[in-house]
Amino acid sequence: MLRRALGFTLILPPLLAGCGGSGGSSARDFRVLPASVANPSAQAVSADGSVVAGIYFTGPLTIHPAAAVWTNGRELGSSEVSFRSAEAVNGDGSVIVGSGLAAGIGSDVVAVRWTKVSGATQITMPTPTLNSFASGVDDTGTIIVGGESSTTDGVPHAFRWVNGTVTILPALLGETSSQANAVSSEGTVTVGQAGAHAVKWLGTEAPVAL
Q1: What's the pTM value of the predicted model, to 2 decimals?
Q2: Rounded to an integer, what distance in angstroms lies between the CA atom of residue 96 and that of residue 51?
Q3: Would you write out the chain's pLDDT as a tens digit for each of its 210 residues?
């Protein structure tokens, strides 16, 4: 099983310039959630503190997910993929990664990369997958790590995405399953799990047990 179940995420950028001032909110305050939102939780923040990613639910039974960019109120998603769970934010908040639902695939979970320019787009794996998720991104937003479960063997594998190209990271000797949970700010070191071991990868080299 992949580590992350599908969650539902809200992006909470700071208030627009001019909303602060005497007696008002500062530039680093965040908008108050609507009354219909339940159980909000912040999960990740950009290096400069300007963008926060978190989870929230809507509806009377708190079962309806939604994602939004609160500076303009639009849903955080696209026609190709619905961005439902944000897990990591790059240094300046311009790239957010996580998981979502791809249009036309039912409930299949797919790894997602979101930018202000392109919106939410699916991170395509090199082989067909049962599901996938993105869990870490470097400062520049050009290196993303996560996990995928292929249709070939159903076993979770860690992956590393660099400027559009996905590499499945090698497994630890004696283990078959793996997943990547985070990547260093410069993108050279990935950490995660392989079998019952905590591991780290240097680039795409074989992992080292910690």
Answers
A1: 0.79
A2: 9
A3: 344 433 333 444 332 222 233 333 333 333 445 555 666 666 778 888 777 776 666 555 455 554 544 434 455 666 677 777 788 999 988 898 988 887 765 568 899 998 878 888 999 999 888 899 999 999 999 999 999 998 888 899 999 999 999 999 999 999 999 999 999 999 999 999 999 999 999 999 999 999
* Cα radius of gyration rounded to whole Å, the chain: 18
Say if residues 14 and 99 touch (Cβ distance below 8 Å): no
Q: Are strands 95-102 and 109-115 parallel, antiparallel or unpaired?
A: antiparallel
Q: Buried b vs exposed e over 111-148: b needs ≥16 C-beta within 10 Å?
A: bbbbeeeebbbbbebeeebebbbbbbbbbebebbbbbb
Number of Cβ within a 10 Å radius of residue 95: 23
CA 116 to chain centre: 15
User: Using CA atoms, how far apart are residues 189 and 171, in angstroms rounded to an integer?
Assistant: 15
Contact (Cβ atoms closer than 8 angstroms) between residue 121 and residue 111: no
